[in-house]
Each structure stands twice: as C-alpha cells, then as structure tokens.
C-alpha cells in the first residue's frame, strides 16, 4: 500500500481510471448523438463551440487528475509529467476553470436574452476568456512561486486559496442562474443549469475535502489512495452531470437523449407549438392567384408560399423566402407571450441575420445592426425593416421569373384541380413538405433534368 501510494498503480487507481474513461465515452456519445443519429446540421457560433469546449475541458480535467496524482506507475519521471503542466494548468484554467466558465457564459446568455431581452453586450468569445482570467492569473502566480513538492502537492497556505477559487466560480454560477429563475423556459435550460449547480455543489464539497486531504496529509498512505480515488471518481460524475447542450441550443434539446416524446420537431415553430407550423393543412383555403397583386400579400397564402419557396430553392436563392416564412410564423405568437417570441426571434437571428449564418439574408447593414442591437427581442416590429428589404429583393430577382416558370404553371394546375373537388392524394409530382434549408438545383420535384433551365431563374443579385 505504501509503495503504490507514492508511485501509483494501486488497484483502486485503475478502477477510478476505468470509471473516468467510461464517463468520458458517455459524455462524447451524449454530445454527438443529435448530429449522428438525427442528422442535425452543425450550427455556427457559441451554440456549437461552447459545448465543444466543455467536452475538451472535461477531458483536460480528468487527464490532469490522473497525471498529477500518480494514478499510473511510471519507471522514471519525464518532462511531460511536470506537476505544473498537469496539476496547475491542466487541472485549473484548462480543466475545472474552463468547464465552469463555459457554464457561466451560457447562464449569462440566458440572462441577457430572456431578462434583458437583448443579445449579450459582450460576444461569447470575449466573455469566456474574461471569466477565465482570474484562474489564469492564479495559475501564473503558482507557476512563478513554484510551491509544489515533487509529488505535486501544496501546503495549506496555497491549498486554501485554490479551494476558494473553486468555490468562487460555483457561487458565481449560482448567482447568475438565480437571476433567471423566474423565467418560464420552454425547454430545459434552467433545469440543466440547476442540475449542473447541484451536481457541482455536492461534488465539490466531497471533492474539496478529498483534495485538501490529498494535498496536506501526503504521509498517510491509505488516505492518499482513498482521497485520489474520490477525486477522480467525483470528477468523472461531475463532467457527465454537468454537461448539457440545450442551454445554448434549445431546439437540440427536443431531439437529444432526454427527449420523452416520439414526435420530432424540424422547425423552431413546431417546437414552440405554433399552429400549423411547417405543415400545409388540408383546410388551407384555395384561391386564384393574381400576379398583379403585391408579392407580400400573395406570400401570405401558404400554398403559394410553398410553391414560390420551391422555385427560389431551385434557383439557390431560397433563404429570402424561408426568412419571410419564419417571420410570418413569429407573427402568430401572441405579443403577451414574450418568452415564445424571444425564442423564435433568437432562432431567426442565428439562422438568417448574423454574419456567416447558415442562411444569411442579403439586407442592409443598417437593418442588420438594428436587429442585433435591439433593446427588446420580443417587440412586434423587430424584423419589419429587414422584411421590407427582402420583399423588394424578391420582387426584383425572383418574382418576374416565377410567373413564367413551370412552378407557377404547376401551381395553377393544382389550384384548378382542387377547385374542381379533387383530393390531394390524386395529384402526383408535388411535395408540400416544408423546405428547411437551401437545396441544390438538381433537386427537381418534377423529375425533369431541364427544369432549372426552363424555370427562368435569374442569377442577378441586388445588394440592398
């Protein structure tokens, strides 16, 4: 016991390592499950890279505990086994500190979006390093003073400040989360945050106790073995219980491992329960389309909008119509439902407005900044200016070509058939399902290779 307590390789050490490997595998499966199984497209921005950083921080924390606490028995010391590399930087700023900073960043995003009703004033890639700065400063001081022994242990005068730094980050997360506790979230954001806080608080009490015992009483062999076993096992539990992707990407929470319903939601409107969202109801009124009417009025007809959207997708210019469709869905949410409107508005901003978005629309810088800097994400006219510009763009680039395309001819033919009393099932060659993203020109609903040429798509673009 005394020998392996110093050199590593005790049976309990290998058990703890096996549990940590298992926990990290579970964490990886949890994080990639929506993307591999449900084919969820990878999002840009903090909704993707913050969960990725959480996974990396979890790996750093577990590996640094193994390396700095002599879990493995090495024949001789190597430079890459440095106590300051693993025990100071890996376990601190790049491990527990980074994990907590990601969670605090997510909580602050929820605070700004749902309490302040505006996008965060500081972008996540600036806020995260700012939150992590105290930990980096502390690690730099320890590295400069070099208080660690040859077994990577510190005495009480250094252990207590390190423990206080751990507790400070947990207290900060509790404070920020408490500021949003009154918001009635539609998904699992608040529950996940509180679960993370509960897991981290319970774990950190035992973890800190084991940490102090491991650092100070390094002359008691059985205590060394038991305390480092608890350190790694509790850290393994912490990284699994602490990780959740829904705090930054609420739509993914509906198709994750926690989903309790068999129904899948393909759009934010469906997830929010907006009536007839993404569905072309059989009761949709049939009306003759007059090309002389304003385009914005014609697009209010869902059957026409689906036909026009399919035409725009075939021209690789469908983002404008999809934007109109989702803003129209937003208008169905009652103005007194601020939380629902904020969810939908944030979804539209992330999908269409921010630079480099998956379906970024061509609007003026003034309109874009008006949306991004708004003081109220729930206001009814948030996208009014952008929508007017998009409608003008569609009139210039798409509308004239649509009236002479096969899409409009097919739409007229189906309208005539419907008006004569035929059922939808008797018609073939048309798909009324909503298009969730731009498609390639080869996606031909009529199975005709020459459709793109005959549709009359214009490649001209007009900058607003």
TrEMBL record:
Keyword hit for Transmembrane helix: yes
SMART domains, alphabetized: RGS
Domain named RGS: residues: 294-412
InterPro entries, sorted: RGS, RGS_sf, RGS_subdomain_2
Domain of life where this protein originates: Eukaryota
KW Aminoacyl-tRNA synthetase (keyword) present: no
Pfam families for the chain: RGS (PF00615)
The name this protein goes by in its record: RGS domain-containing protein
The entry's keywords: Membrane, Transmembrane, Transmembrane helix
Residues spanning the membrane: 14-36, 48-67, 126-146, 158-181, 193-213, 225-245
